[in-house]
Amino acid sequence: MTTASLSDPKTASKRIFNFSAGPAILPEEVLHQAQQDIWNIAGSGIGIMEHSHRGPVFDRVIEEAEADCRKLGNISDDYEVLFLQGGATMQFAMIPMNFLREGHVADYPDTGVWTTKAIKEARLFGNVNVAFEGKDHNYDHTPSDAELNLSSDAVYLHYCSNNTIYGTRYNTPPQTNAPLVCDASSEMYSRPIDVNKHAIIYAGAQKNLGPAGVALVIIRKDMVERGRDDLPSMLSYAKHAKQGSRLNTPPTFGIYIMGQVFKWLLNSGGLSGIEQRNNEKAKLIYDVIDAGDFYRGVSRADCRSVMNVSFRTPSEELDRKFLTEAAQHDMDGLKGHRDAGGLRASIYNAFPKKGCEALAQFMTEFARKNG
Ligand SMILES: Cc1ncc(COP(=O)(O)O)c(C=O)c1O
């Protein structure tokens, strides 16, 4: 594709329904504000991406982002809020690198592709107890506490609160005496979260929080202190915390957008407000799946994700037809992940209810014509 076709003025004003799993839709208000601030932020005559990461304007950006993040999640001073690079995948490595030593064991319920990858990274540093084998159930659910096979001396338990690919989620965090570590990448701040139950919560930004290139890490201060002290600086939570996420040049634009998303969330009723809207949106689509035999949900009904609705039509051929026709109705990003196949509607915080209504209507009509 040439640069000219990437920025075609004839189509520049049109937006369609974007069901992408990530990078994903951002709130319209945030995008409009960013358009202004890319040019000139806070009357400084300089755009947000052009400001020094150590200057007063960026000081304000990162301080407000952290304060709003704390307000939203009711995060106490016992925790550090960090903005790091390397996405959620870097956290798959940084966590065991800091806390899992040789001879130690950590509990990892395996609920899909992302936890499998996290387990692989952890095994480079210590022992992993796979506390639940989701593969045996085609990853159709997250484990109840009774299904978890925990070790008595785990240095932490790592779980993924929302499984982006299969569309399953934990309704409540797993019960354990070990420090609880959560990959919340695909549902961060989509519902209230009890930070105090956790030692670490992390999320790649590109689904619910901002653009790709930054990860939010909320980490209890005693964990920060417990991390290995012989690591390269960029892999040490303690060093990042000491420098206020500015150990090197941070992803300034990503942090700015995340800050704007936090403000948008605070202005939209906070986490209980967004949870209610998310539940209403997801129900519109699950109701169509449940209404007949045409669609099959991937997740068991009792642990369905409110962010990623994974489903199938009766055949792969019909899945393909569904995608082609959905595109003709201005709906994009509905193809399932290559590991799960089928179809998936990712309906993150910023995804509008009218897009869910449009999809539900399209699905009903498609089932009527092809059933
Ligand atoms: C639940 C979950 N964890 C981790 C990742 C990996 O994130 P990143 O690409 O930021 O490393 C993803 C990406 O889709 C995800 O959905």
What would you say this structure looks like, in words?
The protein has 371 residues and is of the alpha/beta class. The chain has two domains: 33-267, Aspartate Aminotransferase, domain 2; 270-370, Aspartate Aminotransferase, domain 1, CATH 3.90.1150.10. It is built from eleven helices and 14 strands. It has helices at 3-6, 28-39, 56-73, 87-99, 113-122, 221-226, 237-242, 252-267, 270-290, 316-328, 353-370, and strands at residues 17-18, 79-84, 105-110, 127-133, 157-160, 162-163, 168-169, 180-183, 200-204, 215-220, 296-297, 308-312, 331-332, 343-346. It has a five-stranded mixed beta sheet with strand order 2-10-9-8-5, sandwiched between helices. Strands 11-12-14 form a three-stranded antiparallel beta sheet. A two-stranded parallel ribbon has the order 1-13. The two termini are 38 Å apart.
Rg, rounded, reads 21 Å
CATH architecture identity of the largest domain: 3-Layer(aba) Sandwich
Top-tier CATH class of the largest domain: Alpha Beta
Q: What structural category characterises the helix and strand content?
A: alpha/beta
Order of helices and strands: HEHHEHEHEEEEEEEHHHHEEHEEH
Q: So what's the overall shape?
A: globular
Distance between the termini: 38 Å
Order of strands in the sheet with most strands: 2-10-9-8-5
| Count of DSSP strands | 14
* Distinct small molecules bound, one entry per kind: pyridoxal-5'-phosphate
* Helix content class: 25-40%
Please give the count of helices.
11
